[in-house]
Amino acid sequence: MPSDNAFASAPAASNPLRRVTAYTGSAAGVDPVYSEAVRRLGVALAGRGVGVVYGGGKVGLMGILADSVMAVGGKVSGVMPRALADAEIAHEGLTDLEIVQDMHQRKNRMAELGNAFIALPGGAGTLEELFETWTWQHLGLHAKPVALYNVKGFWNPLLDLLDHMVEEGFLRQELRDSLIVESEPAPLLEALAQWHPATPKWDRQG
Question: Do residues 149 and 188 lie in contact, with contact meaning Cβ atoms separated by under 8 Å?
Fold first, then answer.
């Protein structure tokens, strides 16, 4: 769960997109299409003047995203637990790199810094970060958009599962629809900028 002040200064959903928190893998995947799609997203973000917050690594899609943003003059902020930084996987060329004590502090800090969230292709860690952030949105702990960058239909199996949750009565359709899903940078960034929050799960009028 976020700390008491993790979202104290959360911008309203209607505010311009300024800084995106990205969740993605420390691997690049077997298909080069993932790396190329992440590069295009990085260029698109920088082109719009949108900064990136991510886990601070130099490997996999994480490193590709950071490098692509900075290569065209964009700003990238990394947040990494000390244990991982000490393992020498930290990206040393970022705009800024913040070292925190553990994964809980990392996730809270990444949530504070971004005013939108994108899950790129990734593994178990990406899923964990995505669902925690999206659940916080459902509970009304923040009013920031959460999106999937659906490269090569990567997230389609997960979307099928979410639809199954709706059908079986475990997820409200309105909350399911709050998740942005796009496969190209331009419509993804436009959807993030135009997003409006659903009624929180436990709102008495919901």
Answer: yes
Which bin fits 203, alpha (ψ -120 to 50), beta or left (φ > 0)?
beta
The pLDDT tens digits for 121-178 are 999 999 999 999 999 999 999 999 999 999 999 999 999 999 999 999 999 999 999 9
Number of domains in the chain: 1
Rounded Cα–Cα distance for residues 206 and 61 (Å): 38
Pull the structure tokens for residue 203: 């709102």
Q: Which amino acid would we find at residue 103?
A: M
> 30: domain range?
19-194
Measured CA to CA, the distance from residue 16 to residue 154 in angstroms comes to 28
Per the domain annotation, does 2 fall within a domain?
Answer: no
**Does residue 88 form part of some domain?**
yes
At residue 14, the pLDDT reads 46
Nearest to 182 by CA among 103, 108, 120: 120
Specify the pTM.
0.89
Assigned token pair, 166? 């709706």
- For residue 102, count other CB atoms closer than 10 A to its CB: 10
pLDDT at 4 over 60: no
Region of residue 10 (phi > 0: left; psi between -120 and 50: alpha; otherwise: beta): beta
